[in-house]
């Protein structure tokens, strides 16, 4: 999946991955696809909850070895 922006928070724990994607989303136009990469397994619960709370679309989540990857499309 080709994202317009990639946010890599590998090595950081909650709440850093969510804070970083929120920061990235603020400066992007609606419809932009953002790839979030994390080593924090909490992302599997945190990212869907954040998308529900913000109205952004969780397009997909997957695990790649020790990494958790989520694709989010900015609402609007």
TrEMBL record:
Record Gene3D superfamilies: TusA-like domain
SUPFAM superfamilies, sorted: SirA-like
InterPro entries named among the record's database cross-references: TusA-like, TusA-like_sf
UPF0033 domain sequence ranges: 7-31
GO molecular-function term, one example from the UniProt record: transferase activity
PROSITE patterns, alphabetized: UPF0033
Keyword entries, A-Z: Transferase
Listed Pfam families: TusA
Family from the record: Belongs to the sulfur carrier protein TusA family.
Protein name from the UniProt record: Sulfurtransferase TusA family protein
Species name: Corallococcus aberystwythensis
